[in-house]
């Protein structure tokens, strides 16, 4: 090989990288290249024409005419010399040129004598080889100007074909990648279950959508895949939401904005579902609406859960507003106050203090009975939320903003998770001013009673002494003393007589169950007129409330047709009299014993005044029997 051979250009890394990137070497014939070599042979009137690609160790012919081999070694390459040429390389007589006279293709078969080649450039500008024509006879005049111009134009056409070929390869790769992405996206949507997608071609008014989206909006999935007008999908929107959703779509289209709305769909069977739709409109370079793709997810379950939570919160608020004591709720461990009811504001004289932590409880101003200021960490909420205890109570003299000081009792208990960890606390705040005043009055009465008792004992001693002294005999003295002491006792009863607190069982039952009677016909209540003391009334009301709450959650009151029968009786007379209350659920779902006992269950099991509790989880409904000695209920009739 001649020393003039451009080996550095042949082995140039950038050039070889460009050639490799086109994936041309050793590929089958392609019509575009074959047409070019035939045109080159015809235009230049040569028996041989080649699209020659010069690799690092050979030259390979992508297209050829009049030349059987598909490749040659580099020492037989003439095309390699075109790599260094800016334009057409012409060698009129290969045997006379020092670069080619020793070329094996010149000295031997096929004994080529004339060569003309123009560099072939890749789309990135690198020289790949040449488009050449070859003759077996020397051509002292080379190519005519017309032939040379035609060869150059055909070489540029090769570059065009290479560019189109590369674009086609990239487009196929992009389509393959897009197909894979679409398949993955489809699998993701299928796995999501409640997720659908759409893509609206705005100029064509054609919405392309996935199967899940089509099902949601009542469209044939095959039609949605082919594309359908927007109006076809809008028909699936609930009539009450259709207008404002349409306005939002128009606004997003006009502003190239984002769409994120929750609305309802109404289906052919009349059922309604909630969806969250999110998308974005894209404009073209002229700021005209082009595409509006997006996704939609079924949020019906979430909406139902939200409604149930809101109802629960409303019910809790309603209950809190009806209880006769102030209520505060706080989270643990921070101690942040979450809720306070109206009664609390009435007691404290100001709205709920929504303290951000237990440290902020110092804003409550209260005093111990010895006049010391109550510190923030002394309040039951702070002690419970801080993990110091599960229950706490304190009585303080509270300073109201209006200047009045009022005695209040604060009693708190921890709210626990399933593992027993404290997640919050609830405290009840009661106005105990009357009780404190009564206690003060009681102290006065006790001192007075002590004084009277001494006087009474003195009087009894005097009566006894006088009776014994003046009686004719012991029996007569005994009868006379008893009669006089009875008279004294009745007089003492009159002195101590007063109104006692009591409550009607019927009233307790009705009030405890009224919050759970959504139709006014869910409870059948029956029993005799009976009054119990305040402690028994409170315990009975709380137990009935817990039974009703469980029935709403799991038992007869959890279905529209369920009901509960509550009746009570008094069995026996005198000291042996026993109070009995029966709770029976009917018409609910089958019940099973609970796997764990919560606070409500423990409250029910405590019973009334040391009495018995019998709980039976029959398949047809829960049955509970409460019994207690009538005397233990402090009955006043």
Quick tags:
637 residues; 17 helices; 6-stranded antiparallel sheet; 39% helix; alpha+beta; elongated; 26% strand
Describe the structure.
This protein is α+β, with helices and mostly antiparallel strands. The chain is 39% helix and 26% strand. α15 packs parallel to α16. The longest helix is centred in the first third of the chain and has 48 residues, at 145-192. The protein is elongated.
What does this entry show, briefly?
With 637 residues, the protein is α+β, with helices and mostly antiparallel strands.
Please describe the topology of this protein.
Elements: H1 7-10, H2 13-21, H3 31-44, E1 48-54, E2 58-65, E3 71-73, E4 89-91, H4 104-107, E5 114-121, E6 127-135, H5 145-192, E7 195-201, E8 206-209, H6 211-217, H7 221-226, H8 230-234, H9 239-255, E9 258-266, E10 272-280, E11 282-283, E12 289-298, H10 300-322, E13 326-331, E14 337-340, H11 342-348, E15 366-367, H12 380-385, E16 391-399, E17 405-416, E18 422-431, H13 433-470, H14 474-496, E19 503-504, H15 505-514, E20 523-526, E21 531-532, H16 534-553, E22 563-571, E23 578-586, H17 599-606, E24 612-618, E25 621-629
Parallel strand pairs: 20-22
Antiparallel strand pairs: 1-2, 1-6, 2-3, 4-5, 5-6, 7-8, 7-12, 9-10, 10-12, 11-12, 13-14, 13-18, 15-16, 16-17, 17-18, 19-21, 22-23, 23-25, 24-25
Helix pairs in contact: 3-5, 13-14, 15-16, 16-17
